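Quick entry, no commentary yet.
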Amino acid sequence: MFVLETVLTDGIAQLSYFVGDTETGRAAVIDPRTDVEIYEELARKHGVSITHIFETHIHADFVSGSLSLSARLGTAEIWLSGENAGYQFPGNVISDGETFDFGGFLLVARHTPGHTPEHLSFEICEAKNPDRPFAIFTGDSLFVGSAGRPDLLGGDQTEALSEDLYRTLYDYYLKLDDFVTIYPGHGAGSACGADIGDRLCSTIGYERRTNAFLKFPDLQTFQEFVINDAPPVPWHYPELKKVNASGPEVMDRLPTIRALPPDKFRKVMREAGVVILDTRSMLAFGGGHVSGAINIGDRPEMSAWVGQLFDLDQRLLLIVDDDKEVEQVQRLIVRTGHSRFAGYLAGGMKAWEVAGLPMESTRQVTVEELREMQISEGDFTLLDVRSPAEWESGRIPGAQHQFIADMRDRISGLDKAGRYITYCASGYRASIASSLMQSRGFSDVSNVPGSWGAWKAVGYDIEKPEEATV
């Protein structure tokens, strides 16, 4: 029996796939993530052996788990593109059109460049109909409602890759049958494509009729659209490209993290290269935290924000709400390449508090308080830390835009002695921003729980871009 399972990695919106045949007992994994136990669990669930691991391309937004999965299983070979590839670790080379027989179904490799030069997609065909695919793993070439961005390798390659992407979409995908199901490498929320749709799969026919990337009459207008419409490139993408090309560290288990009592924690936090990551909720962090800590809450999107804000060689010192959550938090962190841990605060902030050690707080301003402050005080700067696209779609009147991703290395144009209030869509990124500012010497920073969502929910006025320029 044919089996296909989609593995969604929340936070980075990455999609990997497990596909197999229970009759022959053979299976493959496409684009595995770092923590690979889930694929072994799926193999046991279906009573098959993973014999093949396929990479569609060199990934930029997460650390590939191919080497770790191969080492863990001992039964699976890694297969990599041989087309303009930059892989620096051993693997079997795949050529365009190469076919892999799993019994009742075949996987056929297709060179689909554009997002990257080496990019592969894999058609799924019944063994009895080898020339008529019924589905395809598209990697980062074609998404639901979008397509892969061609600008991640730098401006000198963007034009050529955008032309490759056009040929891939128009000369390959649009020539497939309407009924062919597409299984992409990412879902909504990934920066690997612009405005990726919410559904995890689609069909060629549906995309033909609805996907804006498939509606351009010529290459030039397509290039203008695909280059100009792309979201900002996250800082860590080029770094993860290098990691995945050279061969990620084999991780057969999560790294050991030392449990540190408050006095030892305080000593370690002063060591060079150490950053304090407080993973509690924004309200808990606001109530009291260790000076210098950065608040990135324990939610799936933590993976992307840790990758975005911290260097790979920095050592992370963790504060969690409960010691039992250390492994869960660590799992999210390693997905974007961070495997250096200086330890965690044993007993959490309660232990720090009982030890009588100093704490800072961050004021939480409700939207009602913010509105009243705008009317009665006005001696503060309201910072909108959302993305440029969110900012352009509408904002709180009087706000100044300060995209949080641009705060990574420096916070320019702001007086550290000033008074600031940060907001985002929900408060999550606002708390990251306010904690970054506090850690760098800003003396009066608050953030808004609920943020833009709460502001709209209570019906306060909003400002549109055209209104701001009148």
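second:
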Amino acid sequence: MKRYKTLEDAQIELIELLESEGEFRGTIEELAERLQVRPESIKPLLQLMRSSGDIVFEEIEDELIIRPSSLIPAIPPILTEEQKKDVEKKLAEGHKLIACSYMGGVQSRELRSAMGKRVIIYFRSGSRVEGKLKGFDRFCIKIRNYMGNILVYKHAISTIVYKP
């Protein structure tokens, strides 16, 4: 009996496929075989990823055309000079970069690996907050520090770093 991947694994694999190849052109069956999922799981997967802003896709007759979405945020995702220096210093100390504006949907895999660890979140506004990563979803991140639990909306984040 053939084992199929979970939709979350298929989502990560599709993001990696798009990062390496730029786009996918083919049938639903071809995509299902590449991602090792059932063909009936492809449309819900694509709709989920489109709703989260990870991809755009077209269906022309039997062919799918899938591309990574290139949404331009209203606020530029640029770190201030002070933040850049701080991030470079943290990376030199052995911290790992979790999320940056150009990382797209791969961030959920990195955030899972940082669960329970101390993270530093840099905001687009220029401020930052440190704390232990307690949870996350598509729109926000929950951390805990000396002030208590803090809910941070992802659209306000520029970069996240943590020490593995």
